[in-house]
Amino acid sequence: MTTNVPTLVLNNGVAIPQVGFGVFQIPRPETVRAVLTAFEAGYRHIDTAQMYGNEAEVGEAVAASGLPRGDVFLTTKLHNERHGHDAALAALDESLERMRTAYVDLYLIHWPVPDEDRYVATWRACEALLADGKARAIGVSNLYADQLQRLAARATIVPAVNQVEVHPHVQRAGLRAYHRAHGIATEAWSPIARGRSLGDPTIATLARKHDKSAAQIILRWQVQAGNVLLTKSATPARMRENIALFDFALDDEDMRAIAALDGDPHGAPDRTAEAAHRMPRWTP
Ligand code: NDP
Questions:
Q1: What is the pLDDT of residues 59-87, one digit of tens each?
Q2: Claim: this prediction has a pTM higher than 0.85
Q3: Looking at residue 284, what is its pLDDT?
Q4: Nearest CA to ligand 1 atom 24
Q5: Nearest alpha carbon to residue 222 among 183, 263, 170, 182
Q6: What's the gap in Å between 130 CA and the centre of ligand 1?
Q7: Residue 74 and residue 72: Cα distance in Å, rounded?
Q8: What is the 8-class DSSP label of residue 243?
Q9: Rounded to the nearest whole angstrom, what is the distance from the C-alpha of residue 153 to the centroid of ligand 1?
Q10: Which ligand 1 atom is the nearest neighbour of the CA of 242?
Q11: Mean pLDDT along residues 277-282
Q12: pLDDT digits (tens, 9 = 90+) for 33-58
């Protein structure tokens, strides 16, 4: 199966497939099969995390797929309880062992956990891991612009990505403008708001207009907005649907209609603050 997913070039020259398959909340016993099905559907970018508890199964699927390691883009993210310089270094070594690989393509700080105020020290560890070749690119997740600014003032390397919640009802225009101005790619988590954006009447109208599903309209909007998107489904037909985004295009009027959904009080909520509150104490 060849894949027609385009790649974007990160700020250090590394190419990243614009559509990734996320494995958050895929139970461990189902992860190998899910990732193999995703590969069959054409995904070549897998997004996991230490906190998802399924890195070993992702690594097992990569090995079982027979795909050359260089054809797969693998991301993992630092556990919230492994912040700090030495802990972050050791945590990636453990991930590499679990995933049976010498390097990840992208290592992210999963959450800044600002109450502990260690994410700058953690970032320095990420810079060392990049220099060591254990990560081909390094980035962050769930940072707001002021936190990115703080990192910029104290660190050497600009994050290649910031992985944040972005969907039609929570578009983060200001943060994405900051990313563009500083060469940081936006990765969208929950790109269809866990399904809560699918019932929106504007999306339904566009789905009829283009003879596509509501999910495809939203994911195509993510592509045209320039985001890397991380879609998750445990359902093979939806996995295929969510990557079939490259045989149609939204026009300017369609893009404006979706832009107008941002902040809709009847739309899908912004879950980042609630998740940030919950995640620091979360263990698999
Ligand atoms: P999504 O917006 O991708 O939603 C996934 C949900 O939508 C699942 O319940 C899935 O159901 C359903 N779904 C998927 N495709 C379709 C479709 N075509 N039609 C109808 N329903 C569909 O959100 P997630 O929160 O799962 O995020 C995706 C990925 O983003 C994660 O796997 C993870 O990699 C990343 N992420 C990162 C976070 C971070 O803090 N950095 C936080 C959250 C997510 P089903 O599986 O039953 O098909």
A1: 999 999 999 999 999 999 999 999 999 99
A2: yes
A3: 44
A4: 190
A5: 170
A6: 29
A7: 6
A8: H
A9: 34
A10: 18
A11: 59
A12: 999 999 999 999 999 999 999 999 99
